[in-house]
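Q: Predict the assembly, please.
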Amino acid sequence: MFEKVLVANRGEIAVRIIRTCREMGIRTVAVYSEADRTALHVRLADEAYSIGPPPAADSYLRLDAIIDVARRCNAAAIHPGYGFLSENPEFAEACRGAGIVFVGPSPEAMRRLGDKLQGKRTVASRGVPLVPGTTEPIADEAQLRRQAREIGYPLLIKASAGGGGRGIHAVHEDAELLPALRLAQGEAQTAFGDDRVFLERYLERPRHVEVQVLADERGHCIHLGERECSVQRRHQKLIEESPSPAVGPELRQRLGAAAVAAAQAAGYTNAGTVEFLLDQRGDFYFLEVNTRLQVEHPVTEWVTGLDLVREQLRIAAGEPLSVRQDQVAARGAAIECRITAEDPEQQFLPFTGTVQRFVPPGGPGVRFDHMLFPGLEVTRYYDSLLGKLVVWHQDRARAVQRMERALEELTIDGLSTTIPFHRWAMAHPAFQAGELHTGFVDQWWPEHRPWGGEVELAAIAAIALAQRQASRPVVAMPVDTYDGGGSRWRRAGRGGLARG
Amino acid sequence: MFEKVLVANRGEIAVRIIRTCREMGIRTVAVYSEADRTALHVRLADEAYSIGPPPAADSYLRLDAIIDVARRCNAAAIHPGYGFLSENPEFAEACRGAGIVFVGPSPEAMRRLGDKLQGKRTVASRGVPLVPGTTEPIADEAQLRRQAREIGYPLLIKASAGGGGRGIHAVHEDAELLPALRLAQGEAQTAFGDDRVFLERYLERPRHVEVQVLADERGHCIHLGERECSVQRRHQKLIEESPSPAVGPELRQRLGAAAVAAAQAAGYTNAGTVEFLLDQRGDFYFLEVNTRLQVEHPVTEWVTGLDLVREQLRIAAGEPLSVRQDQVAARGAAIECRITAEDPEQQFLPFTGTVQRFVPPGGPGVRFDHMLFPGLEVTRYYDSLLGKLVVWHQDRARAVQRMERALEELTIDGLSTTIPFHRWAMAHPAFQAGELHTGFVDQWWPEHRPWGGEVELAAIAAIALAQRQASRPVVAMPVDTYDGGGSRWRRAGRGGLARG
Amino acid sequence: MATINGEAIPVDWEGAPGGQRAWATVAGRRYTLDVLATAPGQLSLLVDGRSCEAGLDGEQLHLNGRVYRAAVERDTGLVANRASAAAHGPAQLKPPISGLIVSIHVALGDAVQQGQTVIVLEAMKMQMELKAPRSGHVLSLQVEPRQEVGPTQILLTIGD
Amino acid sequence: MATINGEAIPVDWEGAPGGQRAWATVAGRRYTLDVLATAPGQLSLLVDGRSCEAGLDGEQLHLNGRVYRAAVERDTGLVANRASAAAHGPAQLKPPISGLIVSIHVALGDAVQQGQTVIVLEAMKMQMELKAPRSGHVLSLQVEPRQEVGPTQILLTIGD
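A: Predicted assembly structure:
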């Protein structure tokens, strides 16, 4: 196994990777931009080095600087996490050229699958069904309009490169076509340095169901069951779970076989995710392959008991998979809520600011992978993900109850976050019934009654705070005692200032 | 199910119980002494009421005050946690008299088992083997000396009442007999209001192995496998795990059957733990029954997937067990380290103080049930348990590695804690080999090399802090950048200021 | 009297200001309070037995994980915070978040329709279209492409 | 020069005091430092790339979860902290922790042997025997049963 691994990422995923490395006795090297000098991944790593100014293009996307750090501190491998350079074949090639192991697939397999257009052509050869759409990039406006007419509205304009829901825009009529093209191309160019886009039919209320695969370099390839990630905004996932409430053993077996076939068609190795759309009739269509660790990998970890980062490192070191397909057994249900710095009441607009009080949730069946600490400044330079709240229980209904409880405990003062959205979602009858589709948020969220607040309680708190402002010392010991009398009890109990 | 439950406890276990109540939609009532006004259990409960001054005898042991609160706020049940009133049959009776459900066994079953002497007589009737010793309390000094001679040294003087390792003292020779008697009686009187003690042979290097049982009020009784809790100091557990490295399927089945027989002999209901000593030959002897939730219940929760507090509440509400014996399946290995405010370098002497910085560990397979927050004052009034760090992995070896990693992450500035002890234990070859016995700490800990510290690093930090003391404003943004030059790299890497 | 999110709320307070035990009557209901400072600007309250964590960050009141705009009248130290009445006439466009101007789709003097995309802004890896807040003409244009802008900065003004 | 747990450690410091970039040479080895204040009395350090959290609480230095007694000489603000040489002669018994005196097993003037139990103290639900720190006679006895005592309090004195 590697003696030292460089983690070419930031935020919660860098912390996540460092944790498994430590458990395996692997020393870790963090890299950081100037904005991240005090970040958790810097604190947890054995060594940390600055690689440039805050913009990602000047730091986390600088493959030369990162490989230079790896060489100088003798890192044997680089784990790219997700985003940034994780799906960049040039980076994987540069690592190979520098004699450093890239923890992920080969650049060749990445090219065959990571690019969405190329991926479609690769997996179609194995008979995996595709979503109807174009298989070549849009060349000009005339072609765009002609192909849009052929596919019909609504349709999606999608960046061929990258992932994470970036560079995807829905188009409902002719007039939206050109502006959407420009936005998608602009985002794709910025995020991936590649502005190729293509068109795809916008299926009616499909579920997003994806399959986790693992393939070692000795020819073994297995799947770890599915995740459902239908609750999305801006084509980015908000809630993920495993198993999917729509997938039974027979469908799981077919999905898994299709995913393994897709991976094998490309000669894929390491961890990857094959994404499908599942329609109302139970038919599924290949969407794309994410050639990296997914944000939502913890739900699979919890139901299968496997550590996916450990598997990735084993595979990258040339070791065989630690389990056979027939040893993979799922237990219970896991749900993940993405906690992002966004205002759900303002179309999930990103929110920058400084974290004040932070209280993580705890207790049985709760995992919170995050980058938070009091004083953290959330800047505009990186994406808005703060952490992933994951729960497990014996069945989905109880997991939903546990998530509600954990969301109540989680406190992040100083930022607008998606916590209120997730509390709403967990309490929503359609979510509880597992009636999910990729338009779930668009269908239901506009109807929600914005939380009016507990204004009486806020008024009392404001006055109590004002009385103490800048005058009294802090008192930490109480002087009150229990009195047997009845007067203070009469108003206790339900009603009034009910918990929000 | 109950609409509202009062939690008659404090600290991490009160928080633990409140969490499950919330998941079940049960409203919660906390009670607190004046020392606990800002405690986590007060913050998390739906309602919280003061029950008196800091000493437990004036607050958490005041059954009248607690039942009074429960009545006034219409709590349908009281969960006693562990310690305090949890094994007090008078309290269970008083609840019954007030029309409030006590979440635990009946006072009759508690009397038949909770008292150690009575418990031995009860289970002996079912053929469960006992540790050799006396079965009546010590009446006078002459009897004490005579019985001690019969049993032989080393022996244990044990309080018949209560649990949690209190009122237990080892005696190695005649001269120690009387002082040990006085200490044991004194502690037992203070902790349980009952100074009866008895003698038991001190077995040579036994393992402490206990079995979790669940019994409903419809006559079903099952066991959830064993926990090994051999790593102890002062007869109090420090490290617990499930499964035991010394127990295979056949022994597990026999231990489980003995535990169920013991519970059934007493007409026991709710959650309970049957403790055994397991000798080097694999023979086991009944020790006592803890008629309550154990501190170490999370390791069983993690391997079985069950929520023991949920099971307790279901049973107390008259519902059947949620699983049959043949549905109980264990997966992987769980380990718990008790994080207490004690100085392991000073014979685990309790330590009082105020928590400064607190950073909980996280990531996959880690659960930390605790009472900590920055500013918490740890006083002399209650026991020293701050929290329980629990990890799970697919097998014991990897669980040990995960625990080492989690212990490295956990930071509690301001107190001496058992964290350094646990780091030592996880790295100890005998612990890693599972070669455990109740004298593990006495055998190995005295040999440990006290950690010398990283004095060079401390000197650098002290100077850097002194330069900034009370003069410069806080700077939160870095100004450093990566430089391609080689000079700062030459000294990077291993050696020198190695992580302690 | 406290003002919460712009709404004036009369509170009748009994007990010594700054004391631990107090009673407050709001909207006809009397609450028993236990008030304890846990850190500067941070309180633990028990309101009829229910625990609340309250903190003040400027005019933002953090309470049980939610944020309120709060102001208290009289000599209590907090400044009243009344939103100024929305002005009629020219409308200013400000970015909803700090970011980078990607492109500008209007020029000084152009006629624009309300809702028309005038500027594209990039922040947190996402590009967003900023729309004209009203119909009219571009009276001033204060930014250019690739410029970094903050949330209080005026990007352009639209008037008659 | 810093004193850590009573040991004097010479440190050769390069770089502006209070600056972010500095170098320190200790025991013949030169370390590259990046020093950043994260809160009053709290620093984040990178020492040859390794991150350390350091905080000061009185004379206690918290560093990576461990506690050191620390003092810095010269005009840097920390007072030197040298343990006074252990006095010979009468020995004082102080409790290791705050607690309650359960019982006292000697009287004024009694002869005692070193290691003999003289007082039983209760704290955190545990009773512990306090032993005579030396042999001699009880010169003074300053507490009584059921009295609460703190860790700096003298319980009794034993001398010749």
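The mean pLDDT of chain B is 90. Chain B touches chain D through 65 residues (CB under 8 Å).
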